[in-house]
Amino acid sequence: MAASIFAAVPISPPVAVFKLTADFREDSDSRKVNLGVGAYRTDEGQPWVLPVVKKVEQMIANDNSLNHEYLPILGLPEFRANASRIALGDDSPAIKENRVGSVQSLGGTGALRIGAEFLRRWYNGNNNTATPVYVSAPSWENHNSVFMDAGFKDIRTYHYWDAAKRGLDLQGLLNDMEQAPEFSIFILHACAHNPTGTDPTPEQWKQIATVMKRRSLFPFFDSAYQGFASGSLDKDAWAVRYFVSEGFELFCAQSFSKNFGLYNERVGNLTVVGKDADNVKRVLSQMEKIVRTTWSNPPSQGARIVATTLSSPQLFDEWKGNVKTMADRVLLMRAELRSRLEALGTPGTWNHITEQIGMFSFTGLNPKQVEYMVKEKHIYLMASGRINMCGLTTKNLDYVAKSIHEAVTKIQ
Amino acid sequence: SSWWSHVEMGPPDPILGVTEAYKRDTNSKKMNLGVGAYRDDNGKPYVLNCVRKAEAMIASKKMDKEYLPIGGLADFTRASAELALGENSEAFKSGRYVTVQGISGTGSLRIGANFLQRFFKASRDVYLPKPSWGNHTPIFRDAGLQLQAYRYYDPKTCSLDFTGAMDDISKIPEKSIILLHACAHNPTGVDPRQEQWKELAAVVKKRNLLVYFDMAYQGFASGDINRDAWAVRYFIDQGINIVLSQSFAKNMGLYGERAGAFTVICSDADEAKRVESQLKILIRPMYSNPPMNGARIASMILNTPDLRKEWLTEVKGMADRIISMRTQLVSNLKKEGSSHNWQHITDQIGMFCFTGLKPEQVERLIKEFSVYMTKDGRVSVAGVTSGNVGYLAHAIHQVTK
């Protein structure tokens, strides 16, 4: 038999965050803690199916009028409209003016990918492989891959995290925007920046918007944590809504994985804000073509759950309560971790733990210290020093705090 | 001004356009023979009993909603591979394959297309049968490959142009990619017989082509899952390491749940591991990981003996109803007094029938009789019921006499 055509296919390295969880699973040490992958956990360290989700799933199961027919290419209409409404606000001028489009997508990733594929084909002329795409330094590592696989050849970083002061490098960010070629695409985290947990303040967002408008830069928002960051949907959507009110055309990739706990149902939405209805209509028609060759039409279950919840005032309130429960637990863990570190006298300042927002915290631990945490203490976190606050519980807070203390004092 | 002023309006999807026009029609006798989704004899969507049972079982287990692995639900992918390859398959038992969960048939085709674009350096050309499913071309094109064609359907006989196919395939440049419909060819319903498959396998092997099977109707074509997978299994037995896309949209009625799988038959398990790692690298920037619901249902059915048995009965039921509608259509056409040879309607197999009707005749069917189908004369037999088969025969006779 001839040699296989795939004989030369090399093994590719596993995605870091999943390898971390795989290693965690294999670890038999009873003290082990998983502060890696970004999924919410209860104080018992368990996944949490939101009570409102359970209720709605039961409603769906009992509804014999429902079947498993194909959704339209762009998705379930009630889902799309409600999802965009959540991002932009009930009183959004863009919605009132009928210049908002939505594409139901496979999670936030899917929304990013459809948006990226569209931009590569249609933004600023018809061939954008050379248009620069700016990703924050650091960012979710999959941002790079999404835009690369969509065909963009020039992916750059913009200054974001200031390691020295453990905060936003606003000046660096604004400088990069001033220097960026006109019409460049910028991926902005709507809230709860992943992995740093550091968001611009409203004043800082205003400065960012001013520069972006002047330099004709395109805002592509990634909104994966709306509601989850502060506990308030409106507060977490402030930046997106501000840009809309400033007249920007923009994309917003939304994920309902975290705020609805629907991780494996792959529920996402790409919100498109355009100048007018006609432009949005044409954009959506082209996005349909892209969707058709990627997944044809999106999965039904998760969209139904979200649509049902968002369109019922009572269920909507219940959902907001569930979201606040998650956000509050995270805030509590932040406060508790910080107070322990300060009580231990762990070298350095730890206010960033409570000042950062969302699921993640950039602890400031360096790779050697992280290695110590993983190997000696069986506490699994990313090499970047990123921890998932949801992995903390009242039971493991002491152990984690002491371990961080050890790592910082023993290892430089 | 807008960023999007220059964006052209995309053309409407021809198949979905049929359904949209149908919906707008107020004629009580209207028939939707456009999109390929199964309907029961009352013209209603059919949720399989085994699906309902599987859903109830899943609900009672109160599972969490944690992310699936990038490659999907392992119980599902393993069962999918076994369903396609057969439990006695050497390739399956030796583990020299990788199966990843895909977003139904389209998503699985796309992953495969992207994988070939990235790792199959020998050729950029994908040979499709003439005609093929309309979405094959844009899928492979968007993945960065080029489309070619081989003769397949003979419009004069409404059946397979086997001589033409063999002639064309024997001339395909070595190491090109050839796509074959495993069963129930879409849109023609014309499948090779087993002796013809054997000859196709021989010529494909001789030309050293990379074979890409699209199997969207296993079980749905003949009613027998093993019979419908015969060509796939034969090719593998002949030492042809195929790649395969599967869909559970039709045979389990899981359309909107997007359950599918992409498989690569490899030289050995080590190669399978390497290929798997690269498939994951392709999937992650597309949608990170696949949706759980459909895969969970399919897995429950395939892996629970009672449910699997029930499923096999139900899928046969669907196939049998389609076959029965074909038979009734032909007999009704005879009753109408049609002098044409309509044998191809019962010779063809699966959801679709290439009637042989010309665009002008289709136009009349739509306008005068509110019978909706695509311009190429393709009929979704699933849309025919014992209640409307008479009307359909009457309408077809009127436009062809």
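Chain B touches chain A through 78 residues (CB under 8 Å).
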